[in-house]
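Model: Ready when you are.
Researcher: Fold this.
Model:
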Amino acid sequence: MLAVSELPAPRSVRRAYARHRPETTTLYEVVRDNLETLYGAIDDGALAVRVPKHAKKELDAYLSCGVLCRGFARLRCGSCTDSLLVVFSCKGRGFCPSCIGRRMCATAANMIEHVLPREAALRQWVLTFPFPWRAVLARDGALLGALTRIFLESVQAFYAKRADAPDGKTGAFTVIQRTSSDVRLHPHLHVLVLDGVYREEGTSLLWSPTRHLQTRQVGEVLEHAVRRMARYLRRRRLLEARGDEEDRSDDDAEGRLEASAVSGQTPPAGPSWQRGLPRPQPRALGYDKPLCASLDGFTLHAATRAGGHDTAGKEALLRYVLRPPVAQERVELRQDGLVRIVLKRPFADGTLAVEMDPLSLLARLAACVPPPRFHTVRYAGVLAPASRWRKRIAPEPPPVPAPALEAEDAPPKRAGTYRPWAELLKRTFGFDVLACKTCGGRMKLLAVVTDPGSVARYLETIGEPSDTPARSPSRGPPYWKSTVLRRKVLGADA
């Protein structure tokens, strides 16, 4: 898989292509210079946590993502001697901005062109769970999937009732985001719902849009979903009262890592890992903002909407829900060694940025990597793969001109949804990377170089480093650069 920059730019912006160099970014520098220290602190017992195998694999792979010495594809212009090197990506699922950015652009394009009906508007429903549940839901994919299904059924029931069509069906595209804007572990649901229902009349499917959603109705959906979730958890004895220590496991190192990432404290000092879910404190239904409701620690927001014929708005909304947990340009390294993350939007208390120890950031990155077989994208309703109506509502493919069908250089038909690297760059940034800057000819694939000896010889010829950037060795104790953490762990004299 080829790496692509993760930050989509407005289509009006035109700029020349430059190869992505992740080794020059602040995030790469933080991981490279502190990863061995994190492992060393865990091995020495200074951090009573354990980095899961899948998270360790992704952290290690990130340091080779987009680095030329790991191999590359060489493209050369057919008219002149200009060439272009394209690096390989790590295919990360957790936090790699380049890999998740590529997946974000490809998924959004496929949804617009092949899945979402053109006449249906999209409404975003964002559901957050109570704070004490988050560490459990981050690990237990089956439980989170069950609660997601309950919420989607509640939304479906609301749309069918609102349209007075008991047999009507809507569709939903759900993305499970695992972090908040300060990279704390925070599993929550971004659900893009077709803002209306389809109903069958004879051999036709009729679209009935939903208009003028009211804040009170958002509260009704939340009440219905929370009531069903509580009933589901009680039947399976997954709810436990606060203060009940019977099922707690304080020797769970992975649980302490997740609890610490939820609370934002490193070394771990957050709530203990629990096999069950604490009962949320009862709180009455409240409305803090228009089309936003809160109840018993849950919040539901439904104010964002893209019109049926607003294709650009739909694609922007899809990219938003699929975005990476942290963007390269929002990570800064301070002179005192701390990492500063600039928030995209200020917190309610006016906080514009958060500063943390590098090991704290690495612990949060490790916790945000989804476990194996933990699906973060789900389809439901008429958008589900098994739905009989999905093909009937999908947009028609654009007609292909006859000359293009007979052209020798016409691209082959794709059986799947994979989109080439050059196509994504052109769609996202507006420039054609395969157009030669010198003569305007077309770049063509010349070779894929993966043999270490061949890679080293070619890179030495063009003056590029032939070795992977070396990791910094583990620092000895005290491991933390933050004086606050040093005092907390080592005492007032640290």
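Researcher: Now this one.
Model:
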Amino acid sequence: MKSFSGHLWYLNEILVGFTFFDSAVSLEVKSVMVKALDKNTTDHPQCTAFNPTISLKQLSDFVSQHTKQLFTALNIPQQFPMNSPDTWSNDNDYIVGQRKVRSLKVVNDAAERGVALIQAFSGVLTNQEEQKQFLLQVVKKHCCDFQNCNKSTLTTVTAAAVEATSTSSDN
């Protein structure tokens, strides 16, 4: 639950606007979302906090007047919600918005943090380029050797290594 709730910051009144352009979202749900665009909230757009009832919520529960800020930020014309969602596929404003949303680049935060971590770590270990290259080769080999790197795999591998070490020291 704690891990899941750490990712709820993605789910807020503004970013939920991307779902208007998602073909996996039904026309009925989009219709309810359009009605929710007029929902007046006095709060600033906030992240969703985890609570046990979150699984009972619908997409439209996260939509409010703040959702329109996404359209404004991406310069997407805002007339398309005035029409029925079943006509959006022929609506030029919607098509423009859909193209803009699809052209956005997704950033992998975990990969960026990994690169920053290895840069900081290698800078602490050595300033010699040859040593840094060796360190990167070791990391690459480790990634190849442990492709399924989860806790249970590492526990099994570690136990096997300890067993092999104790057996070789006995001989």
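Researcher: Key takeaway?
Model: The mean pLDDT is 77.
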